[in-house]
Amino acid sequence: MIDPVVAARRSFERLSRASRQQVLLRGVAGLAAAQLPLLVVLAGGVFHPLITLALMGLVGLVLLLPDSDAPTLLVLAFGALWAISLPATMSVWTLLAAVDLVVLHLACTLASYGPPQLVLERAMLVLWAGRGSLLVAVTALAWLAARLLGGLDAEPSRLLTAAAFSLLLGWVAFLFARLVTRDAA
Amino acid sequence: MSATVTAGWRPTPALVRAALVSVTFAAVAVVAGRPDLLVLAVPFLVHAVAVVVRRPSSSPRISSRLEHTSLREGEGTTAVTRLDGAGDVEHAVVALTRQHFTAMKPPGGVVGAAATVPQEAVEIAVPLASLRWGRRSAGGGAVAATGPWAGRVWGPHPVLPTTLTTLPLPGTFDSRAPVPHPIGLVGTHQARRPGEGSEFSSIRPFAPGDRLRRVQWRVSLRTGALHVTSTVAEEDSSVLLLVDGGIEVGVGEGLHGRATSLDTAVRAAGAVAEHYLHRGDRVGVRVLGSTLHNAVPFGGGRRHLRRVLDTLARIVPGDHRATDSARIRFPVPAGSVVVMLSPMLSDQAVAVTRTLAQRGLNIVVVDTLPADLGDPDPRRTLAWRMRLLEREAMLLRVSRAGVPVVPWRGPGTLDDVLRGLGRRARRPRLAAR
Prior knowledge:
The complex is a heterodimer of chains A (185) and B (433).
Chain A: H1 4-16, H2 20-42, H3 49-64, H4 70-85, H5 92-111, H6 122-151, H7 158-180
Helix pairs in contact in A: 2-3, 2-4, 2-5, 3-4, 5-6
Chain B: E1 2-3, E2 10-11, H1 13-32, H2 35-52, E3 61-66, E4 70-72, E5 76-84, E6 91-96, E7 102-104, E8 110-114, E9 121-130, E10 134-138, E11 141-146, E12 152-159, E13 162-167, E14 189-205, H3 217-223, E15 227-235, E16 238-244, H4 261-278, E17 282-288, E18 295-299, H5 302-313, E19 337-342, H6 347-358, E20 362-367, H7 378-400, E21 405-407, H8 415-426
Parallel strand pairs in B: 4-13, 16-17, 16-19, 19-20, 20-21
Antiparallel strand pairs in B: 1-3, 2-12, 3-5, 5-9, 6-8, 6-11, 7-9, 10-13, 11-12, 14-15, 17-18
Helix pairs in contact in B: 1-2, 4-5, 6-7
């Protein structure tokens, strides 16, 4: 069992040797994470001081350990805050929140490629800029589609819900098969 | 050096995040009828799909090498880590272990290589330079590879190091003084006997066997008898370098920093060996305080210089084993010059010096003790002063044996003492009968 103080000291030592690019990536991730509670409030949600404080604690962890599970916890906590603070909304703040999550996710992903001293090549940054654009474009399309469908005022359909559940379960089963089972290679 | 690793790939935190968030947000969106959460889940869903539709089919194989396994101090080489079977690798990163006296570029030794287009092999090169003589391992560390969309990671796996031999960079040295007793065949040193050479000795009557071009016509005409110009023979010499490797004093900071006594001794030995070998003399090396690779027999030429430097590079500081100085044998030919490079802090060094002096050899002690140890602790400073008093007594014993002691100062270090030894050799001596 690693002493948390020792682990924290090691993290700070690693961070002290970080390259400028890695510091920048962590800064972007921290900034994107810090904006999440603000987006909830701007979208018309209720301000929850305790949950916001917990989120800020997670933001600190994300800054230190972007290659850990802290960003995952942060995104899930934000989802919980969004769900309990806001009614279903498809305003532009929803799209901005999704884009903010993309920025946070990609910054943490790029910061996890290696030790903090690593400087990623230009080719990698260009590749990920393209991927980020793709993610944002697909999200924007989904947001537009959701807005259009919301504008139709369609009646709730059991068949549609069942189809959605089936899709979800299929996705979970596929993920389980792909991630939990060990690669043969 | 290579190692085959067959361990597989595992999901990265990014993939776990994408999968977990997409599933959780989508589930809540369906259950609670919240399409906004579905919009938030979309980018994570796309990322997760992009990763899981393709599975890595093979694991890379690691091999590592150094471009050069032997360097001079300050020279650089490249540590290359190669991943074969890297079709599923999108990015690879190598983190070399930091070693004393090894500089890397970048300083942390962490270098990445992108393979945005699938390649069969990925090579990562880390430039490094060795800043101090010796044999050290270099190029060791860890390597990791990441798959497409940063979804799976392979490693980190160890990269095996390779032994890097760093030959000492000989200091600047030059000597214009002849060696006192050149006894050899053909060389550049003036011998004490007449013979074929270029240095004038005398004009003497012609004798059978003299060459006609040696005839001194002016004197021959004046005296009426044939005279010839005689020259001093020029011969090569043998130089034995004794390096005290048992004790190392001072702080070693590599090529561009402070030097320990052993750094000075090794670099000075390299310089003296290079100088005399270039002049055609024979040089031998003996390392005191070391039991392995501690001697190089007398020899000459450029390849011999490499042998000498290689032996000097193998000295391990502090690898001292107590040996009886009376039992050490030095096969030194007559007329050799012995250069002892030592901080003169051990009884063994003093005993060896006195023994060789008593054999009638020309021996010079080059004092390699650093001028300033830079220790701020007053107690250690006091202890060191006491040690220096003991050393003075040792140096006095050496001086009484007729052995000159000079500090190493590069060019001309040995000039005065070698001339002094030459004069002393020509002086009449009282011999005990």
